[in-house]
């Protein structure tokens, strides 16, 4: 249960506090700061933004330090952001729980969330990196071992790529150094692959009441044999060519028959929306089954993307867990439901 949040120099907010109840509706026109508030909540959950890879973009313009602080049950979660000018020229992001500094691996997952926003359509239609991010953002919340392996894999991969660049420049490979980093990327990469495969198997085996789909995992297995197989090509490219950083998946749909088609290429925009909605509903279920509790459901301006029938399906989920909804128009919510919701009104 997210009880409250305070923002200081975050995006459009100089200083602002909000409190939440089991069901909260945030109403306001576009550009009034609704999505910025959702981003701040998500930052407390995952430890990173769903809108940018650059932490400094979350800072209010021309400010050096920003802060997001939230009360979750009996714990106080905090993320501190700087642009580098206050820390000897290096940007940093600091995580705190009850005032005690934590690594992101121990911070993420304190506030469980599932976010559904119009940008989620990009998971299906855009680049593989967005689909990998989707897998990461689900699994990093529920599995500490995944968080550890993912961070270790990313760091090891960076070091290995630096060795490949050096080999490309000098024409020589330091086999002893490669052996060390190869072992690390293989060990951690296999954990990442295994956990992703488990999640995708869950998606495929779970009942689907919105959209009949299958997720096809295009995994890039990493092993000594595969690294050896691509040794020349990797030196020529200067990067590691196999491993979970090259993973992808496809969402397949059934058009009234047994043949599956890729929603990215053969689905209408409406079908693509429904596929994402189904994935998000399964994400809710996966987190609940993994951890025994329902995550906070964040619905950011989705009513503009769905038809009335599927909006009703979403509204039926309210009450099963804490839900925070943003919308441009209060009329999208039935009057009977509005009576039980806290309403926060934004102005332009």
Major sheet strand order: 2-1-4-5-6-7
Low-confidence stretches: none
Total number of beta strands: 14
* Total DSSP helices: 12
Question: What is the rounded Rg?
Answer: 22 Å
CATH topology of the largest domain: Rossmann fold
Give the count of structural domains.
2
Strand content: 15-25%
Q: What is the CATH homology-level superfamily of the largest domain?
A: P-loop containing nucleotide triphosphate hydrolases
* Main beta sheet strand tally, sense and closure: 6 strands, antiparallel
Q: How far is the N terminus from the C terminus?
A: 28 Å
Architecture (CATH level 2) name of the largest domain: 3-Layer(aba) Sandwich
Class per helix and strand makeup: alpha/beta
Rounded average pLDDT: 92
For the record, what CATH class of the largest domain applies? Alpha Beta
Can you describe what's shown?
Helix 4 (128-142) crosses helix 5 (144-170), helix 5 (144-170) packs across helix 6 and helix 5 (144-170) packs across helix 8 (231-237). With 348 residues, the protein is α/β, with parallel strands linked by helices. The two termini are 28 Å apart. The chain folds into 2 domains: 1-112 and 294-348, Rossmann fold, CATH 3.40.50.300; 131-292, Glutathione S-transferase Yfyf (Class Pi), Chain A, domain 2 (Up-down Bundle), CATH 1.20.1050.90. It has a 6-stranded antiparallel beta sheet with strand order 2-1-4-5-6-7. The chain is built from 12 helices and 14 strands. The model has no long low-confidence stretch (mean pLDDT 92).
């Amino acid at each position: 249960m997210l009880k409250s949040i305070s923002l200081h120099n975050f995006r459009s907010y100089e200083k602002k506090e909000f409190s939440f109840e089991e069901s909260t509706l945030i109403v306001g026109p576009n550009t009034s700061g609704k999505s910025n508030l959702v981003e701040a909540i998500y930052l407390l959950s995952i430890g990173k933004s769903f809108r940018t890879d650059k932490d400094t973009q979350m800072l209010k313009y021309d400010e050096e330090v920003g802060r997001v602080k939230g009360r979750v049950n009996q714990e106080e979660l905090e993320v501190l952001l700087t642009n580098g000018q206050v820390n000897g020229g290096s940007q940093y992001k600091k995580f705190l729980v009850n005032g005690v500094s934590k690594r992101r691996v121990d911070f993420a997952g304190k506030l469980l969330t599932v976010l559904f926003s119009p940008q989620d359509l990009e998971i299906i239609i855009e680049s593989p990196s967005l689909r990998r991010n989707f897998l990461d953002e689900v699994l990093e919340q529920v599995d500490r071992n995944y968080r550890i392996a993912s961070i270790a894999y990313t760091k090891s991969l960076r070091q290995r790529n630096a060795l490949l660049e050096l080999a490309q420049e000098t024409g020589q490979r330091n086999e002893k150094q490669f052996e060390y980093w190869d072992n690390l990327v293989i060990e951690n990469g296999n954990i990442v692959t295994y956990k992703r495969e488990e999640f995708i198997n869950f998606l495929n085996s779970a009942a689907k009441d919105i959209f009949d789909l299958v997720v096809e995992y295009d995994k890039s297995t990493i092993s000594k044999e595969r690294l050896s197989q691509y040794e020349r090509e990797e030196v020529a490219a200067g990067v590691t060519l196999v491993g979970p950083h090259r993973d992808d998946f496809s969402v397949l749909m059934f058009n009234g028959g047994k043949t599956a088609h890729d929603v990215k290429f053969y689905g209408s925009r409406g079908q693509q929306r429904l596929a994402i909605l189904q994935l998000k509903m399964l994400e809710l279920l996966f987190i609940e089954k993994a951890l025994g509790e329902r995550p906070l459901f964040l619905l950011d301006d989705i009513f503009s993307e769905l038809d009335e029938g599927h909006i009703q399906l979403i509204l039926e989920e309210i009450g099963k867990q804490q839900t925070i909804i943003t919308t441009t128009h209060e009329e999208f919510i039935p009057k009977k439901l509005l009576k039980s919701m806290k309403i926060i009104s934004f102005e332009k």
